[in-house]
């Protein structure tokens, strides 16, 4: 009672003395309490019991907004005609406009194309540290450095611990001592690990990971650009569960103009049954929750984050995989089947240069890609591997090498079956890519009725080239086509389809463009009665040709025109008669 009376009588004085003592402590020493108050002042807030933070570097964003020069804000740039020769010389060895890259600042600004809500997102105040691992072979100077500089400049400095550039036996002089000296002067957290001979992309990544000391490994390709606040969205899910891998949205850096643009606003990674990378629609619930991270069955390839602990629990990449090919499937299957999770993070966006062509020859003889695919299938895919071999029986003739270490990884981690993966993670994959393909409407050669010695010729120079030639009919693959169950027309077993993107007027060119199985400008129908190949839903235009100059195009349909009449080697007449009643598969 006496203490209570004293408190009531003197509580004002006691509170004042307590506050004064607290202020003296905070002013005189760096105690944990003082540190906590400081962090709170830096933008840390408590959300549902978790301390979170806005990691945007607003000062750096203001500096970027004032930058001037070619390519700034990711706008398309160009070179004067006087530099055409230099441009062409560098194009040949890089597969992109490297001369233009040299005119663009290493720290160029980029427009913020993220979902608007990303600007408001907060992430855990205590995030793990990251190591960026970038393998390269004969990469161009400015594209390699722009990868490292963009990663560094747009990262919270206390989170990005190291940048490890793995030199896979480059032969360009400037990638030797000059690169080491540049990094030592301008980017000291970056260093180069040099391989004694060409090991290939997969083993180069593995070697870089072995040299990393940070909590999280982030793998990037050597011609990429990291955008605003790219790092925290990759680290936050891993901080919550270390058995999580996180992929950024991968945008496009144009190989000619270096324009930075979105590839799309989200798709889930997948594959078809020849192991071509494909993409599935975002699920309705994930679309509703944008831009929250969402589950994805398969990663696109070389851009992702994973905790070092989980990566090595999974055995890293299978070191038996050679050069490149299949590694994204192997690691994706491992992550999911061995009790992990893989997410795509819409608020982390990284641009990638997709080369116009591959400038480097394959460093190995033999079908190393088929060997890689078979290793993945034999270790991880159980009974589903038969659907790969059904389409690619030649893979069965390729040896896998010793699989015991990889099978031990699966056993040690008590990993789940591939059936579980297909039913729970990639549950809608077979809707889009059936285990057994439905039959074609037509296949074989497409022979001109007007000039029977000539057939449509698909000999390609590049993925986006015009289909503009007839050739002397033959049995080689360039003369073989199929009108598939998806109602698209393509060279046999190709992933490029006849596409008419710009149908204006009476006549338009035909392109060969990546198949999307979405009808539209890739929809075709064979009119059995008139021997005409009709384009589009309305069928107003037909495949036509100029026999004289051997040009192929579409023109307004004319049933009396012999140049619009074509003869296929094989017709499935029953399916063709029922064409309008059959939905494309999917």
If you had to describe this structure to a student in words, what would you say it looks like?
This protein has 18 helices and 28 strands. With 586 residues, it is of the alpha+beta class. The strands form 6 sheets. Strands 4, 5, 6, 7, 8, 9, 10, 13, 14 and 15 form a 10-stranded mixed β-sheet that branches. Strands 18, 22, 23, 24, 25, 26 and 27 form a 7-stranded antiparallel β-sheet that branches. Strands 21-20-16-28 form a 4-stranded antiparallel β-sheet, with no helix packed on it. Strand 25 (532-535) and strand 26 form a beta hairpin. Helix 12 (327-337) runs parallel beside helix 13. The protein starts with a helix and ends in a 9-residue tail after the last helix.
Give a nutshell description of this structure.
With 586 residues, the chain is an alpha+beta fold. It has 18 helices and 28 strands.
**Overall 3D shape:** globular
Helix content: 25-40%
- Extract low-pLDDT stretches: 1-8, 12-41
Spatial extent as radius of gyration: 29 Å
- Total strands: the figure is 28
How much strand? 15-25%
Helices, by number, come to 18
- Give the end-to-end Cα distance, rounded to a whole number of Å: 82 Å
Q: What structural category arises from helix and sheet content?
A: alpha+beta
**Overall pLDDT confidence:** 89
Largest sheet: 10 strands, mixed
């Amino acid at each position: 009672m006496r203490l209570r009376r004293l408190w009531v009588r003197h509580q004002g004085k006691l509170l004042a003395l307590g506050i004064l003592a607290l202020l003296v402590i905070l002013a005189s020493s760096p105690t944990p309490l003082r540190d906590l108050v400081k962090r709170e002042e830096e933008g840390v807030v408590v959300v549902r019991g978790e301390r979170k933070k806005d990691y945007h570097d607003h000062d750096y964003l203001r500096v970027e907004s004032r930058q001037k020069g070619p390519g700034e804000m990711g706008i398309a740039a160009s070179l004067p005609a006087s530099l055409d020769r230099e441009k062409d010389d560098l194009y040949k060895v890089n597969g992109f406009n490297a001369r233009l890259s040299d005119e663009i600042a290493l720290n160029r600004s980029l427009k913020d194309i993220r979902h608007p809500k990303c600007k408001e997102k907060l992430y855990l105040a205590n995030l793990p540290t990251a190591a960026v691992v970038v393998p390269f072979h004969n990469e161009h100077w400015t594209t390699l450095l722009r990868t490292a500089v963009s990663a560094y400049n747009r990262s919270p400095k206390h989170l990005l611990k190291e940048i490890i550039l793995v030199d896979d036996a480059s032969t360009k002089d400037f990638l030797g001592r000059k690169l080491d000296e540049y990094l030592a002067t301008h980017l000291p957290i970056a260093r180069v690990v040099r391989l004694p001979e060409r090991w290939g992309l997969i083993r180069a990544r593995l070697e870089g990971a072995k040299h990393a000391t940070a909590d999280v490994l982030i793998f990037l390709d050597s011609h990429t650009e990291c955008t605003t606040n790219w790092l925290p969205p990759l680290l936050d899910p891993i901080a919550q569960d270390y058995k999580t891998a996180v992929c950024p949205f991968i945008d496009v850096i144009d190989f000619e103009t270096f324009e930075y643009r979105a590839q799309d606003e989200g798709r889930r990674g997948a594959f078809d049954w020849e192991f071509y990378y494909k993409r599935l629609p975002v699920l309705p619930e994930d679309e509703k929750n944008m831009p929250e991270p969402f589950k994805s069955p398969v990663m696109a390839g070389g851009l992702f984050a994973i905790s070092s602990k989980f990566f090595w629990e999974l055995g890293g990449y299978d070191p038996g995989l050679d050069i490149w090919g299949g590694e994204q499937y192997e690691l994706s299957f491992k992550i999911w089947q061995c009790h992990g999770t893989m997410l795509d993070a819409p608020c982390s966006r990284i641009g990638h240069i997709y080369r116009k062509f591959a400038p480097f020859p394959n460093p190995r003889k033999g079908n190393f890609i088929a060997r890689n695919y078979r290793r993945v299938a034999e270790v991880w895919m159980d009974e589903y591997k038969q659907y790969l071999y059904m389409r690619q029986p030649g893979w069965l003739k390729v040896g896998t090498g010793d699989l015991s270490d990889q099978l031990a990884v699966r056993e040690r981690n008590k990993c789940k079956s591939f059936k579980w993966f297909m039913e729970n993670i990639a549950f809608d994959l077979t809707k889009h890519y059936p285990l057994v393909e439905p039959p074609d409407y037509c296949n074989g050669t497409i022979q001109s009725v007007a000039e029977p010695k000539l057939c449509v010729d698909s000999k390609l120079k590049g993925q986006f080239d015009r289909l503009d030639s007839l050739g002397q009919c033959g049995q080689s693959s360039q003369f073989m086509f199929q009108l598939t169950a998806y109602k698209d027309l393509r060279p046999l077993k190709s992933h490029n389809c006849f596409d008419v993107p710009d149908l204006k007027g009476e006549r338009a060119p035909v392109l060969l463009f990546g198949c999307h199985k979405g009808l539209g400008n890739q929809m075709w129908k064979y009119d059995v009665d008139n021997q005409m190949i009709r384009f589009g839903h309305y069928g107003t235009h037909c495949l036509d040709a100029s026999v004289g100059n051997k040009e192929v195009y579409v023109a307004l349909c004319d049933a009396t025109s012999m140049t619009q009449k074509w003869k296929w080697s094989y017709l499935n007449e029953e399916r063709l008669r029922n064409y309008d009643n059959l939905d494309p598969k999917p």
